[in-house]
């Protein structure tokens, strides 16, 4: 089964999506998610935080921190808001032991979690990471400071 994800943020993109749908052979399933796709600054901040978490905790790599965050924070967000994701995750991944789930979140497999999030979902995800690790005493780069630095 093939999946086609598109970001529709212009009238031309909308027209192309309509053409694509009109050309599909039925039956097929279509899902539409409201909201813009995650942003590059959000991705850069996430990568920075993973490095900061790994350095401050000292017991994991940035990739391991990323995998843990995807599993702890990203999966619940998507399960709550994306029915197709929830159904597939619950059928195939939820029954697995924690170590197997964690391995699926990291390279080389790296199950898509944050890459399919909207901007709002990614904001919720980053907020959850910041809250969780700040409560543990870690100091993560302030998003406002990061924005000024990146500008």
Overall mean pLDDT score?
Answer: 90
Strand-residue fraction? Answer: under 5%
User: If you compute it from the alpha carbons, what radius of gyration comes out, rounded to the nearest whole angstrom?
Assistant: 17 Å
Spans of at least 5 consecutive residues with low confidence: none
What is the string of SSEs from the N terminus onward?
A: HHHHHHH
| Helix proportion | 55-70%
Classification by helices and strands: mainly alpha
How many distinct helices?
A: 7
Q: CA-to-CA gap between the ends?
A: 41 Å
Major sheet size, sense and barrel closure:
none
Query: What is the count of β-strands?
Result: 0
General form = globular
How would you describe what is shown here?
- With 151 residues, the protein is an all-alpha fold.
- The chain has seven helices and no strands.
- It has helices spanning 11-23, 40-57, 62-81, 83-92, 98-105, 119-135, 143-150.
- The relative contact order is 0.15.
Overview features:
single chain, 151 residues, mainly alpha
Short account of what is shown:
This protein has 7 helices and no strands. With 151 residues, it is mainly α.
Give the arrangement of secondary structure elements:
Elements: H1 11-23, H2 40-57, H3 62-81, H4 83-92, H5 98-105, H6 119-135, H7 143-150
């Amino acid at each position: 089964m093939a999946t086609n994800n598109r970001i529709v943020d212009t009238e031309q993109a909308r027209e192309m999506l309509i053409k694509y749908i009109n050309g599909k052979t039925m039956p097929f399933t279509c899902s539409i998610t409201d909201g813009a796709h995650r942003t590059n600054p959000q991705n850069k901040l996430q990568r920075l935080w993973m490095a900061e978490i790994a350095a401050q905790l000292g017991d994991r790599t940035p990739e391991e921190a990323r995998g843990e965050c995807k599993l702890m924070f990203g999966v619940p967000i998507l399960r709550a808001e994306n029915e197709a994701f929830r159904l597939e995750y619950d059928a195939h991944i939820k029954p697995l032991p924690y170590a197997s789930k964690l391995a699926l979140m990291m390279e080389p497999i790296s199950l898509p979690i944050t890459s399919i999030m909207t901007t709002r979902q990614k904001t919720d995800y980053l907020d959850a990471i910041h809250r969780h690790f700040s409560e543990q005493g870690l100091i993560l780069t302030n998003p406002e400071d990061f924005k000024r630095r990146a500008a």
